[in-house]
Structures are given as C-alpha cells and as structure tokens.
Amino acid sequence: MFYCMFSLMLQMVLSNMVVDDFYTVHRGETPGIMAEAPTDNGAITSIDQLMAHIRAVESSGRYYVDNGLGYFGAYQIDYANYDNWTHWTESYVRDGGYLEDGPVMDNEPHGPAWTPANQDNVARYILTG
User: Fold this and answer.
1) How far apart are CA 9 and CA 19, in angstroms?
2) How many domains does the chain have?
3) Cα 51–Cα 52–Cα 56 angle in degrees, nearest 5
4) What pTM does this model have?
5) What percent of the chain has pLDDT over 90?
6) Pairing state of beta strands 65-66 and 71-72?
7) Which residues have CB under 8 Å from 27's CB, separation 6+?
C-alpha cells in the first residue's frame, strides 16, 4: 500500500513540474546580439533569432575567438583548420552567394575574408540548408 501511495504522490508532483523549474540561465552583458529577445513560448521563430542564439552560446557574441587551438567565429566555424570555412564559403559562392573582400585573419592567405558579414552570410546559408 505504501508503494502505491508513494508512486501516486510522486506522479502528481512530477506531472506539475516543468523543466525550467530545475535551472536558471545567467548571461553576461553581450551588446549587439538578440539572445535576450523574447520567443514565442520558448520557440525560436526566425532564422535571425536562431543565429543570435548560436552567437550567444558558441562565442559570447564575438566574431573572433581565440580558443588556444585556432580561431572559431560567431558560429564556431573553424577558421584555423580551414576545413569548414573554406568548404562552406565555396559552396555558398557556387550557389550564387556574395562574399565581401576584407582582411583575412592573421594575414593568412587561405579562403575568403573572415569578416562578421561573411560569417553571417555563410552561417545563414548553412543553416537554411
């Protein structure tokens, strides 16, 4: 009888809980990103909102991140290894995308310019598949 009552009480308590009750999220000041933008009941409703959340989580909103292994951009596109960045930019341009000219990080001759606009354009292209 005890186990029946205990499982019934436990089931009632757990059915009224939501996952958000178990944790809190604290974000530092990261100007210029939409990570704090309200969502529709927690759902991401646009590609811009998705990209803002990725920037906030992956790199604290920064487009240049020195992680000790190389540089990862706002969307964790690996620039130092060149594999993802070069492949994705080539696909983007081949499908009609435009990449702006600009300084290449650390004066490396590999791939297109590592600018915020280029990172945004390539990430949008990859995310929209």
Assistant:
1) 19
2) 1
3) 115
4) 0.60
5) 7
6) antiparallel
7) 35, 36, 56
Q: Which stretches within the chain are classed as H helix?
A: 2-15, 47-59, 83-94, 116-127
DSSP summary character for residue 69: S
What contacts 62, CB < 8 A, 6 or more positions away? 74
Q: Is 71 helix (H, G, I), strand (E, B) or coil?
A: strand
Report CA dihedral (84, 87, 88, 94) to the nearest 10 degrees.
Answer: 180
| In contact, 88 and 77? CB cutoff 8 Å | yes
Chain segment 75-105, per-residue pLDDT in tens = 777 665 556 777 888 899 999 999 887 666 6
> What is the phi-psi region of residue 111: left when phi exceeds 0, alpha when psi lies from -120 to 50, beta otherwise?
left
Residue 109 lies in domain: 2-127
Query: Rounded distance, CA 55 to CA 23, Å?
Result: 21
Distance, CA of 52 to CA of 93 (rounded, Å): 23
Residue with tokens 């000041």: 29
